[in-house]
């Protein structure tokens, strides 16, 4: 399969993995799952879905292509770009146009658009020569993004992207 065709499949694969990751904490609410999966419906918590889906897809892609390519590097950059696109497009739409009322069609359209653009960039990054330092840098970037998400789950900033408008609060909520 060509890389171009693979990247088209990547968009679907990442989206489907994201759908699964969205509900892991709801199904298994505990400290460990709170670190890796969204614990509320804030805009920021959904970054865990993006990073997780792109990381899992990078593992699948590495297994499929087997040859030493810059897969973790390209997918870590793609996940960061996807996060930036989602935050910069979805946040104003959600806060100002939708007035914090969720619209799944708009949400999915923005997310799919962000995945698509990030996979175009990933495709171009994979065209470059393999470099083990870039691969290690990609793994480090994934780890940094994961740790940042963990920290902000328990210590969210008091700004709109960290606020869960459905539960009216910040960070993790325990139902007791």
Your description of this structure?
This protein is an all-alpha fold and 176 residues long. The protein has one domain (3-163). The protein has helices at residues 3-21, 24-27, 31-36, 47-65, 71-97, 104-126, 132-154, and strands at residues 163-164, 169-170. A two-stranded antiparallel sheet has the order 1-2. α1 (3-21) crosses α4 (47-65). The longest helix is centred in the middle third of the chain and has 27 residues, at 71-97. The chain starts with a helix and ends in a 6-residue tail after the last strand. The model has no long low-confidence stretch (mean pLDDT 91).
Distance between the termini: 51 Å
Beta fraction of the residues? under 5%
What spatial order of strands do you see in the largest sheet? 1-2
Task: Report the order of strands and helices.
Answer: HHHHHHHEE
Number of domains: 1
| Shape by Cα distribution | globular
Rg over CA atoms: 16 Å
**Unreliable residue stretches:** none
What is the count of helical runs? 7
- Give the number of DSSP strands: 2
Find the structural class using helix and strand composition. mainly alpha
Major sheet description: 2 strands, antiparallel
- Percent helix, as a range, is 55-70%
Averaged pLDDT: 91
List the helices and strands and how they pair.
Layout: H1 3-21, H2 24-27, H3 31-36, H4 47-65, H5 71-97, H6 104-126, H7 132-154, E1 163-164, E2 169-170
Antiparallel strand pairs: 1-2
């Amino acid at each position: 399969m060509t890389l171009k065709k693979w990247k088209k499949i990547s968009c679907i694969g990442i989206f489907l993995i994201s759908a699964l990751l969205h509900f892991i904490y709801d199904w298994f609410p505990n400290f460990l799952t709170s670190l890796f999966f969204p614990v509320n419906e804030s805009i920021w918590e959904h970054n865990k879905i993006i990073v997780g889906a792109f990381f899992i897809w990078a593992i699948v892609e590495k297994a499929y292509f087997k040859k030493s390519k810059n897969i973790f590097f390209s997918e870590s950059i793609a996940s960061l770009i996807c996060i930036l696109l989602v935050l910069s497009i979805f946040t104003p739409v959600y806060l100002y146009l939708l007035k914090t009322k969720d619209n799944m069609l708009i949400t999915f359209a923005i997310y799919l658009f962000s995945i698509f653009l990030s996979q175009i960039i990933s495709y171009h990054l994979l065209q470059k020569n393999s470099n083990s330092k870039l691969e290690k840098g990609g793994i480090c970037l994934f780890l940094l993004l994961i740790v940042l998400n963990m920290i902000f789950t328990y210590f969210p900033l008091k700004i709109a992207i960290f606020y869960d408008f459905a539960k009216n609060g910040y960070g993790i909520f325990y139902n007791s």
